[in-house]
Write a structure and sequence with these properties.
This protein folds into two domains: 91 residues, no CATH class; 81 residues, no CATH class. Helices cover 15% and strands 28% of the residues. The chain is α+β, with helices and mostly antiparallel strands.
Amino acid sequence: MPGVRLYREALIDLANASALDGGTGRWPDALVPDVDELVNERRNAFPFSVPAGETRALWIELFVPPGTAAGEYAGSVTVSWDGGAATVPVGLTVWPFTLPSTSSLRSAFGFTYGAIPSEHGLGWATRSRRSAPATARSRSDTGSRSRTSTTGGRTSRTSASVYGPALDGTAPTRLTARG
């Protein structure tokens, strides 16, 4: 269905706490996409197994285009498993306002361009150009607007050339520029 993205929550086993307020054991981590939007490839998110006595979460992202009439919408989702299926009613409330398509606040997530893992097998510019539309789609700002020094060996001018479209609303996403 157009405008719908599916993700499965993955669990990881932590032997060491990742922060002072963290812990060890099984923790929910990344959302594994049905289709990786950065490279348009199907991933191994579905189908999946759930051990007895455990639960799993699914994340369903629905794009509501600007101009959609405010109101209550109803639908259903069918979930199937070995030996059965269930149809679950779903409700959606569309509010009478439109979020801007670009970030309105400067922010930084402790993100540095040199921290993007080189194990992806891609150069810095390719990795950055692929991730910029996802950054824009989530209305996030990696802090690029406030950078004045070099970061990870890249100048802020280079960062602006890669992330500029994500920040000014011209990146190739479903969100319109400054909408």
